[in-house]
Structures are given as structure tokens and as C-alpha cells.
């Protein structure tokens, strides 16, 4: 009875993670193995309590026990049942229907009145809102290309910078109107300043215009062809954006040097970077790439949170192309989001780039009400890296054989 009461109290005060459908205990591998071994040993002792034979010494914690396999089996089943990675790459399912066909995958006929309301919504969204929004979008992009090209002929100086900022703000705000975006900005006193780096969580390509409609930024990205390439070429004539050739993107040293040279010039606009490297469905924040945190500049974190009740902003690039995605966005009711400018952060003494990136990511997740995940967004299209597997193997091997220091003592 006493032991049962102790176990009950232990479970009551044990920390749990409730992010998924399974309540996972926030304990280390070593603690969980000790718990499994202790439970197994107690059952053996209870079963042999009436035996008169003496038992040998208890097995050492550095020896393999068959019960250890239960831990890995349980973790594997939990990962399959409650996959916290794959679900970050699909649109969030709503609790209630917002009269958009694509927001309810289990749609079935409910009532004639509701069907009529949905039909009226289709007429309004596709017959009135979509043509108006397309007109605004084409106008905004056309003005951006024309005006930035014209500004590019001006000599470098304060007048060119002033006109460039005004043109970019005007055109981005026209594009925001094309999405009927309702944006609430919080803590504007923390807006990024020249010579800094603005980092934000990434949900959609429109994250750029959501932020750029409230302030000007220097963009970083790969050079594209077609219409996107035309826009990039015209923009860089008026503002020092950082575009890379496809062959240069993988050269980390070249990328870091160009970013470092940019932030050293305090007259240049702050750089806008999305360190996740891919779009996440706005329920979580995944691992930040450490490259942008190695430069040593001041980092301005920004948290972006969309309200999916009026329109889904997440871009599932493996399912929809850019044109299809933009049409779906423009045929939604509206894009509603909140933007929080967090206080600037700098790298602390003794802190490496990865630790700094994790600290910034945690601050963004906490402010935006998002789940802070350690997984790499590259898992969207790739396999789990061998380093993740080796890390778990090393942890278990340390428990079995101990560290070199422990072996030397023995």
C-alpha cells in the first residue's frame, strides 16, 4: 500500500508534454530505463517472495537487459500514432466549417439552408472578390516592376533610398489589399532597424508582404526565372537585396560573407530571413538553420500567427503550385493574422550559433502560441539524418558502457 501511494504521488507530480494526443513524460532516456528496470525487478521480487532460495546480486545499470527494448518499442509506437512532424506539413483541420469547401474534408450534406448559404458564398468569393483581388494584385506587381526600374536609374543617395522605401511600401500594401489581409501589429517599438537581421517563423510566401507592408527589408533568396526573376531584377535596382545564383546557395561561406557585409553597413535595410527554410502550417516552429545566427549581428525576432477560420494561409508546396495556391488565397474570405515584434536579441558570451538559434526560436514560439519542435523542416522532403539516429545510440551506449572517465575509475 505504501509503495502504491508513493507511485501515485510520483505520477501526480511528474511533468508531462501535452502537445499531441499522447501525454509524453518529460524524462530522460536514463531515467525511463531505470524506471522500467525497477518495475521489472520489483515484480520478480514479489513473485519469488515465498521462495527460500537466495538470489544473486541485482544486475548493474551498465548491463543490457531485455526490458530495455520496451522503452524503444513504446517510443516507436508513440511516434507512429502521434507523429508531431508530418502533421506540421498539412493544413490545420478546423473545428467548425467556415463555408469554404476545402476547410472540411469530411463534408456531408447537413441542411438545404446551409447549402444555399455556401452557394451564395461561392458566388460572392469567385464572382466579386476574386476579380477585384486579381486586379489589385496585377496593379501592385506592375507598379513595383515599373517604379523600381525607374528608381534604379537614379544615382545612389538619400533621395534614391527615400523613393525606394516609399515605392516598396505602396506596392506591398496594394498586394496586401489584394488578399483582403487584416493584420494586427504588436509592439512596433521593437521593429527591426538598419544593420540588423529580422527572423520570423514561416507559413506562407505572403509572410514577406505581411511584414514588408509595415516596414522595408532587404530580401534574401535564390534567383528565379520568368515573372519572379523579372520582379527580382527590378527590385534589386532600387534596393540592395541579396540574390544568389543556384550554384552559390550551397556555398555557406559565400552566403555568410554577403550577409555579413550587408549588416556591417548601417545605412542598409535590415535583412529578412526565415530560418526554418520551408513553410510550416502555423501550429509549430521547427528547427532554425544556424547560418543567419553565426554573423554576430543583432537579431530582431518576429512571430506571425494566422487565423485559419477565414482562410488557410499555409502553403503545402508538395500539393499545390504557386499559382494554384495564390488563387485559393484570393478566393478565401480574408487573411487574418497577428504580428508581434519581439525585443532585439544578441548572442551571449559562450553561446554558439545553434544555441542562439534555439533561444530565438523558443521566444517566437512562446509569443505566437506555437509548439516549439526540435525537428528539421527538411524532413518535409527528405529522410531523417543519420546524426539523429546516432545521437540516440550514443545515449544508450553511455548508459551501458559508461563514459571513459567512469571506466578509468573502475
What is the element layout, followed by pairings?
Layout: H1 2-12, E1 16-17, E2 24-25, H2 29-47, H3 68-81, H4 112-151, H5 158-178, E3 181-186, E4 197-200, H6 207-212, E5 218-222, H7 226-238, E6 242-244, H8 252-264, E7 271-273, E8 284-285, E9 299-307, H9 322-330, E10 335-341, H10 353-368, E11 371-372, H11 386-401, H12 404-409
Parallel strand pairs: 3-10, 4-7, 4-9, 5-6, 5-7, 8-11
Antiparallel strand pairs: 1-2, 9-10
DSSP summary, beta strand count: 11
Instruction: Please summarize the sheet with the most strands.
Output: 7 strands, mixed
Q: Which structural category fits the helices and strands? A: alpha/beta
The overall pLDDT, averaged over residues, is: 77
Q: Give the helices and strands as they follow along the chain.
A: HEEHHHHEEHEHEHEEEHEHEHH
Task: Give an overview in words.
- By secondary structure, the protein is of the alpha/beta class.
- It is 45% helix and 11% strand.
- The chain contains twelve helices and eleven strands.
- The protein has helices spanning 2-12, 29-47, 68-81, 112-151, 158-178, 207-212, 226-238, 252-264, 322-330, 353-368, 386-401, 404-409; strands at 16-17, 24-25, 181-186, 197-200, 218-222, 242-244, 271-273, 284-285, 299-307, 335-341, 371-372.
- Strands 3-10-9-4-7-5-6 form a seven-stranded mixed sheet. The chain has a two-stranded antiparallel ribbon with strand order 1-2. A two-stranded parallel ribbon has the order 8-11.
- β5 (218-222), α7 (226-238) and β6 form a beta-alpha-beta unit.
- α4 packs antiparallel against α5 (158-178) and α4 crosses α7 (226-238).
- The two termini are 39 Å apart.
- The model is unreliable at 1-16 and 50-60 (pLDDT under 50).
